[in-house]
């Protein structure tokens, strides 16, 4: 009887020690996960981060922006390289839907500085990569009177070039003046807040 009881205590002690060891490993792993990123993790995080290349500042000024979509872009090699250098403009760009396909028109991606005869045409039309159901929605939107589709922002995310487009309705002159007035009021409020913070120091 005594021998059996002693063996039971030893087994219980071993089980308890094993449990503590397992808990310690989990805690250590958790600490490692919440600590500094490895070089590969850091590279992935940087790749996944959104890097804006160009914004269409006229879009919010000239239009009421409604439904927005993220579209991929069919690009050439020199276009991708030029975009990675931060060279692009959407100021004169628009979106056209034709025969079940969507196209980015008028966007200016300057020629790649180190390109050769294979360089691209800066303002060529570029196919937008969207799901069929999204293109159908866009077609329905532009069929409505007064609506168009405008590019809002061009950026890299996850290493791929993307463009945000939006269904938009043109503003009247009064609406545009209201937008300008609101922007000026916001700037004035920000200046007043900065001044108040400076005085309180």
UniProtKB/TrEMBL annotation:
Gene3D superfamilies, per database record: 2.40.280.10
Superkingdom per UniProt: Bacteria
Statement: the UniProt record of this protein carries the keyword Cytoplasm: yes
Presence of keyword Nucleotidyltransferase: no
Keyword annotations of the record: Cytoplasm, RNA-binding
Cellular compartment(s): Cytoplasm
TM ranges: none
GO molecular function: RNA binding
Region listing for Disordered, in residue ranges: 27-49, 176-201
GO terms for biological process, alphabetical: trans-translation; trans-translation-dependent protein tagging
InterPro entries: SmpB, SsrA-bd_prot, SsrA-bd_prot_CS
Primary location class: cytoplasm
Gene Ontology cellular component annotations, sorted alphabetically: cytosol
Function of the molecule: Required for rescue of stalled ribosomes mediated by trans-translation. Binds to transfer-messenger RNA (tmRNA), required for stable association of tmRNA with ribosomes. tmRNA and SmpB together mimic tRNA shape, replacing the anticodon stem-loop with SmpB. tmRNA is encoded by the ssrA gene; the 2 termini fold to resemble tRNA(Ala) and it encodes a 'tag peptide', a short internal open reading frame. During trans-translation Ala-aminoacylated tmRNA acts like a tRNA, entering the A-site of stalled ribosomes, displacing the stalled mRNA.
UniProt record similarity statement: Belongs to the SmpB family.
NCBIfam families: PRK05422.1 (NF003843), smpB (TIGR00086)
Record's protein name: SsrA-binding protein
Species this chain originates from: Mobiluncus curtisii (strain ATCC 43063 / DSM 2711 / V125) (Falcivibrio vaginalis)
Phylogenetic placement of the source organism: Bacteria, Bacillati, Actinomycetota, Actinomycetes, Actinomycetales
Designated gene of the protein: smpB
């Amino acid at each position: 009887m005594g021998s059996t009881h002693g063996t039971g205590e030893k087994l219980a002690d071993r089980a308890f020690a094993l449990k503590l060891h397992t808990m310690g490993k989990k805690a250590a792993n958790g600490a490692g996960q919440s600590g500094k990123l490895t070089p590969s993790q850091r590279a992935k995080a940087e790749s996944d981060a959104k890097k804006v290349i160009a914004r269409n500042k006229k879009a919010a000024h000239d239009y009421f922006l409604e439904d927005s979509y993220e579209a991929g872009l069919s690009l050439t090699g020199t276009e991708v390289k030029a975009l990675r250098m931060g060279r692009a403009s959407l100021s004169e760009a628009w979106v056209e839907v034709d025969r079940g396909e969507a196209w980015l028109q008028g966007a200016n991606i300057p020629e790649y500085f180190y390109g050769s005869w294979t360089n691209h045409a800066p303002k060529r039309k570029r196919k937008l990569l969207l799901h069929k159901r999204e293109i159908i929605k866009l077609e329905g939107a532009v069929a409505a009177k007064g609506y168009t589709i405008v590019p809002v922002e061009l950026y890299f995310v996850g290493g791929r070039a993307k463009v945000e487009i939006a269904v938009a309705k043109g503003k009247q002159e009064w609406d545009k003046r209201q937008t300008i007035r609101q922007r000026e009021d916001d700037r004035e409020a920000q200046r007043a807040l900065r001044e108040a913070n400076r005085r309180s120091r």
